[in-house]
Amino acid sequence: MLSKRIIPCLDVKDGRTVKGVNFVDLRDAGDPVELAWNYSRQGADELVFLDITATVERRKTMVELVKSVARQINIPFTIGGGINEIADADALLNAGADKISINSAAVRNPTLIDELAKAFGVQFVVIAVDTRRIDDKNIVHLNGGRLPTERQTLEWIKEAESRGAGEILLTSMDHDGTKNGFDNGLLKTVNDAVHIPVIASGGAGAVQHFVDVFEKTNVDAALAASVFHYGEILIPDLKAILKSNNIEVRI
């Protein structure tokens, strides 16, 4: 049985890690390279870095960040934000990132998934999906959650898988930053419908939430930010409790 993964997420803005609630009210959470080193030592399985206000001008900044992180840690990490073409992904992977994550660009141009999977391999391509309930439907949102689309979440995720997505990072905007637990109903629906790993994101506030998401949805990984950044949950403690609940993790 594959071990479940614990993944700290670092939202990066202007070279700093930030965190908000429901994608707004951002506050500083520290230096991303220092945090990455600390999480690597604590036993995180992977890391995700998202440039939440990515622009073309800042691409060089993110390449430098990737190089700095790659020098400091020995666990896989994914980088996302502002990746619109093969050249963007190539620069980040060459700088030391293990995987790249795309969101808005994939929805606007789904063939980009095919192109990335063909160029780098399925295992390098993570599709991030920000979803919010509107009129009892789960709707895909773009631009850091600011722009609702016509796409329903499950339908889009299935299409992304068919085009070559190697993994889905699914963030419930309704749960994000609330610390009330993951959106287990949606996560189970998605995880049962696809054959690639699903990373749960949005809502972690207590160790029990991680136990619940793995037991109730069987997702492959759980991602969180503020509970790790501000020391509310320590990864070694979390993994010990998961193991005591017969959830396979890498200690």
From TrEMBL:
GO molecular function: lyase activity
Catalytic-site annotation from UniProt: D11, D130
Pathway: Amino-acid biosynthesis; L-histidine biosynthesis; L-histidine from 5-phospho-alpha-D-ribose 1-diphosphate: step 5/9
Keyword Protease in record: no
Compartmental location: Cytoplasm
Pfam family, one: His_biosynth
Record's signal peptide: none
EC numbers on record: 4.3.2.10
Catalytic activity, reaction form: 5-[(5-phospho-1-deoxy-D-ribulos-1-ylimino)methylamino]-1-(5-phospho-beta-D-ribosyl)imidazole-4-carboxamide + L-glutamine = D-erythro-1-(imidazol-4-yl)glycerol 3-phosphate + 5-amino-1-(5-phospho-beta-D-ribosyl)imidazole-4-carboxamide + L-glutamate + H(+)
Keywords: Amino-acid biosynthesis, Cytoplasm, Histidine biosynthesis, Lyase
Keyword ATP-binding: no
Subunit comment: Heterodimer of HisH and HisF.
Similarity annotation: Belongs to the HisA/HisF family.
Annotated NCBIfam families: hisF
Primary role: IGPS catalyzes the conversion of PRFAR and glutamine to IGP, AICAR and glutamate. The HisF subunit catalyzes the cyclization activity that produces IGP and AICAR from PRFAR using the ammonia provided by the HisH subunit.
UniProt protein name: Imidazole glycerol phosphate synthase subunit HisF
Originating species: Mucilaginibacter lappiensis
Organismal lineage: Bacteria, Pseudomonadati, Bacteroidota, Sphingobacteriia, Sphingobacteriales
Gene from which the chain derives: hisF
